[in-house]
Amino acid sequence: MTILEEIIIHKKKELEIQREKTPLKILERSRFFQRNTLSLSDFILNPDKSGIIAEFKRRSPSRGIINDTAILEEVTTGYFRAGASALSILTDQQYFGGTTDDLIRARELNPIPILRKDFIIDEYQIVEARSAGADAILLIAAVLTPEQSENLARFARSLDLQVLLEVHQALELSHLNEFVSMVGVNNRDLNTFNVDTGLSVKLAGEIPPGFVKISESGISSPLTIKWLKGFGYQGFLIGEIFMRAPEPAVAFSDFVKLLLYGDD
């Protein structure tokens, strides 16, 4: 069994417990459920921003503990002030150390779009994302069928949430549908956790027009962003390089300064 298969099995069990604990009707009464959402794609394309979706995560299955002392409030507001186009908040607790409370707190403090990053396999999680203040959700093609991707994306759009579809191979582009706004190429193989930013280049020409292109994982230098922009990428989901620093917000700020003003 791969780690990805293990995660999905656990996620299904987790969902059963969560449904009992917090029924849909409770989620729909959340103070954030009726808020006007922000357009993640518009913020990514805003030339006044960095194009970076800055991620907050404490650990991962492949890396173990990344940063278990970082304070979410300090990191996310620091990301915002330094020019992040959006935030990505990991809400999986078992494998990434996140919670929906992290998402709620980030929403309370930041006026930019927030992507709920999790292994979404059920409409319940989309309602949960809306109730916690998310503006967009991640759908991972590797754990869904094309039909499931379309059904979940359609449901997300009905709640005014944008959809970022994550792919790792050309075959997964068959999951694209009219309810998806953005395509994220994950340079990390979720089965082996090997990383190759060249994958974004390989798939760039395969992504149909009309979708915002985002490169995810393995980006550790402003030079890589500049390189990927040449292949049509407009957004970049980055987290680990910042979260591994003693002060993630400072690391992000330095990175953006190099991206915008450096000559390296």
Describe this structure as you would to a colleague:
The chain has 264 residues and is of the alpha/beta class. It has a single domain, classed as Aldolase class I (TIM Barrel), CATH 3.20.20.70. Helix content is 41%, strand content 16%. The protein has 12 helices and 10 strands. It has an 8-stranded parallel beta barrel, surrounded by 5 helices. A two-stranded antiparallel ribbon has the order 2-3. α4 crosses α6 and α10 crosses α12 (248-261). The N and C termini lie far apart (43 Å). The model has no long low-confidence stretch (mean pLDDT 95).
Structural class: alpha/beta
Oligomer: single chain
Strand fraction equals 15-25%
In total, how many beta strands?
10
Low-confidence stretches: none
Helices and strands, in N-to-C order?
A: HHHEEEHEHHEHEHEEHEHEHH
CATH topology: TIM Barrel
Q: Percentage of helical residues?
A: 40-55%
Count of discrete alpha- or pi-helical segments spanning 4 or more residues: 12
Q: Give the strand order, joined by hyphens, for the main sheet.
A: 1-4-5-6-7-8-9-10
The shape is: globular
The CATH architecture assignment turns out to be Alpha-Beta Barrel
* Overall tally of structural domains: 1
Cα end-to-end separation: 43 Å
Output the radius of gyration.
17 Å
